[in-house]
């Protein structure tokens, strides 16, 4: 079992979610986050004065899946969330040691 | 046979003719007598009718007079309502251009400004502004409207009252996000009771130093401020200038001596507020004809909105050229700048002049905002000093430049309420001189008296909240509530 955490552009979340849905991966948790990578912030303007927004709004999506599905999901995210410009985001994959469904007490594979 | 019958016939004809003439005379005679009688009666009736008509005309004139008075009452009641609604506009502009953490505080400040304004203007303000004159400086009676219980006074009080609290609201915007609530309330009471009505007395009471007395005698013309570029806006604007000098900039506004942008949290509210203010100006300027029958109310409204549009367009163009992008909140300020500037001259100038006055107001407000931040290092979150102070002064002076005057050949020759003298462009100089004097007096009076008042409040109560409270936001600290509590997780 693996957790896929992807930081993507807010503008891409609907497309990515629909593409994952279509491929049969419905379970997803989404959070509004702010952050920055190597990209420096963007310039905005207030009352004729420029200012830098250096922590940019992003979307963090989290999914926990079977090891076999990781590549498929990463492929979908890579394909749909990319624009080719700076700020497309990153994907982190980490192992998950245990999963428990609160309602039934089912564990691991059954709880996915 | 023939001869006899002819004779008889001839006799009979004569008899018939005689008979007919008798009958004719009897009838005609009677008829003529009847006609004479009728004529006499008719003449008498006519005389009665004429008398009745004369009476009717008298009654009609009185009815028309009553109707015109009623129309004026209705016009000023409605215009006053529009001006009252401007307090919603001021609130929204101030909220929109500041941060979420101070929203409830700003709502309370603006709300209490009008509530205190109503009571204080009744207690004191009206009396000082319109009471019996003392030396051209202030009024001395009619406190609590005592001795003046009639429709005309109530009507006048209502229309003037909604203006009075506006000055304090202007100050509220400039000092937003760091001023102590108690201190602000005390200042508001003093402004509505004294600071505003004293200058108002000088200009609008008819017996103040700017419309009669030695100044007017020396210059030869009376000061003209149609609806309050100086009385309302300059007074508010320069009081605000004194306020922000004493209270200081918000934490984080200047870094290493350079101004930093502190973006406001809601442009939708700022724009809605701006449009509500513009709507209110229909009452603000339109009602200042003080006459529901004044034909020049139409000129006033057209001029008002020509300047509003021109001011906004000008600022949009300036910011577009300066930064590469048209700036929304400054453009909204541009519309208010045009409105403030045209408030004094709107009943005295041609349409084209209103557009020019609006364009120049746009330049003044942009330059004013930048001058305050870059040169004076002052923090005015909503641009109130530039909009109301600088553009108010420009508006008053523009009367002395563009006024058509009441002289022969002027479009406004028969206008009841317009600048009497012609502006510089039409060969007059006296009107310009008195406008400059009035503008200077408004700046000096508002700035000096407010500076003193704020200094005293600062010494006794403290004008500014603590650094800790300012960072936490005035909503929670002063009022114990967030304006947007949904974002907090509550304990069930």
UniProtKB/TrEMBL annotation, chain A:
Pfam families according to UniProt: P-II
Signal peptide: none
A single MF term (Gene Ontology): ATP binding
Taxonomy, superkingdom: Archaea
GO-annotated biological processes: regulation of nitrogen utilization
Listed Gene3D superfamilies: 3.30.70.120
Modified residues (O-UMP-tyrosine): 51
Gene Ontology CC: cytosol
Keywords from the UniProt entry: Phosphoprotein
Protein family: Belongs to the P(II) protein family.
Protein name per the record: P-II family nitrogen regulator
Source organism of this protein record: Methanolobus vulcani
TrEMBL record, chain B:
Keywords: Ammonia transport, Membrane, Transmembrane, Transmembrane helix, Transport
Cell compartments where the protein resides: Cell membrane; Membrane
Keyword Transferase: no
Any one Gene Ontology cellular component term annotated for this protein: plasma membrane
GO BP field: ammonium homeostasis
Gene Ontology MF terms: ammonium channel activity
Matching PROSITE patterns: AMMONIUM_TRANSP
Main location: membrane
Residue ranges crossing the lipid bilayer per the database entry: 73-93, 114-137, 157-177, 184-204, 231-248, 260-284, 296-318, 330-346, 352-371, 383-404, 432-454
Domain annotation Ammonium transporter AmtB-like: ranges: 74-484
Keyword Cytoplasm: no
Membrane topology reported for the UniProt record: Multi-pass membrane protein
Function: Involved in the uptake of ammonium/ammonia (NH(4)(+)/NH(3)). Transport is electrogenic.
Similarity comment text for this entry: Belongs to the ammonia transporter channel (TC 1.A.11.2) family.
Record-given protein name: Ammonium transporter
Organism: Methanolobus vulcani
């Amino acid at each position: 079992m693996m957790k896929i955490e992807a930081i993507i552009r807010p503008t891409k979340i609907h497309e990515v979610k629909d593409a994952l849905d279509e491929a049969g991966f419905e379970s997803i948790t989404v959070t509004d986050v702010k952050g920055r990578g190597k990209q420096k912030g963007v310039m905005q303007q207030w009352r004729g004065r420029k200012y830098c927004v250096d922590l940019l709004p992003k979307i963090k999506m989290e999914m926990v899946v079977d090891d076999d599905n990781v590549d498929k999901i990463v492929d979908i995210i890579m394909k749909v969330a990319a624009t080719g410009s700076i700020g497309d985001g990153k994907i982190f994959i980490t192992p998950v040691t245990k999963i428990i469904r609160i309602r039934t007490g089912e564990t691991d594979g059954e709880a996915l | 046979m023939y001869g006899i019958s002819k004779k008889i016939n001839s006799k009979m004809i004569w008899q018939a003719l005689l008979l007919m003439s008798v009958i004719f005379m009897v009838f005609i005679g009677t008829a003529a007598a009847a006609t004479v009688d009728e004529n006499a009666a008719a003449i008498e009736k006519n005389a009665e009718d004429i008398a009745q008509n004369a009476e009717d005309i008298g009654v009609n004139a009185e009815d028309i007079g009553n109707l015109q008075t009623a129309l004026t009452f209705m016009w000023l009641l409605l215009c006053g309502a529009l001006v009252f609604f401007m307090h919603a506009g001021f609130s929204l502009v101030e909220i929109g251009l500041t941060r979420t953490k101070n929203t409830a505080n700003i709502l309370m400040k603006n709300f209490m400004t009008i509530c205190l304004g109503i009571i204080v203007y009744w207690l004191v303000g009206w009396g000082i502004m319109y009471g019996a004159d003392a030396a051209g400086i202030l009024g001395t009676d009619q406190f609590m409207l005592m001795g003046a219980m009639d429709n005309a006074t109530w009507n006048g009080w209502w229309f003037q009252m909604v203006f009075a609290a506006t000055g304090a609201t202007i100050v509220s915007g400039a000092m937003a996000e760091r001023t102590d609530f108690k201190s602000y309330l005390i200042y508001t009471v003093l402004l509505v009771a004294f600071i505003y009505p004293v200058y108002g007395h000088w200009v609008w009471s008819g017996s103040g130093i700017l419309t009669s007395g030695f100044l007017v005698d020396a210059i030869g013309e009376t000061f003209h401020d149609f609806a309050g570029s100086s009385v309302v806006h300059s007074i508010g604007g320069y009081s605000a200038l004194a306020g922000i000098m004493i209270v200081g900039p918000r934490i984080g506004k200047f870094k290493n001596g350079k101004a930093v942008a502190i973006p406001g949290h809601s442009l939708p509210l700022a724009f809605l507020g701006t449009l509500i203010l513009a709507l209110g100006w229909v009452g603000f300027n339109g009602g200042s004809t003080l006459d529901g029958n004044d034909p020049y109310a139409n000129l006033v409204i057209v001029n008002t909105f020509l300047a509003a549009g021109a001011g906004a367009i000008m600022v949009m163009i300036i910011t577009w050229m300066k930064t590469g992008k048209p700036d929304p909140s400054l453009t909204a300020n541009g519309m208010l700048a045009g409105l403030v500037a045209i408030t004094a001259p709107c009943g005295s100038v041609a349409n084209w002049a209103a557009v020019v006055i609006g364009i120049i107001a746009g330049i003044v407000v942009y330059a004013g905002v930048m001058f305050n931040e870059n040169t004076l290092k002052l923090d005015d979150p909503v641009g109130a000093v530039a909009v109301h102070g600088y553009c108010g002064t420009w508006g008053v002076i523009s009367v002395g430049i563009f006024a058509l005057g009441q002289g022969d050949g002027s479009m406004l020759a028969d206008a009841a309420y317009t600048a009497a003298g012609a502006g510089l462009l039409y060969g007059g100089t006296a009107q310009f001189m008195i406008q400059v004097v009035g503008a200077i007096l408004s700046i000096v009076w508002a700035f000096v008296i407010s500076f003193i008042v704020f200094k005293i409040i600062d010494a006794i109560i403290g004008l500014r909240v603590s650094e800790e409270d300012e960072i936490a936001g005035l909503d929670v600290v002063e009022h114990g509530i967030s304006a947007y509590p949904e974002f907090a997780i509550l304990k069930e």
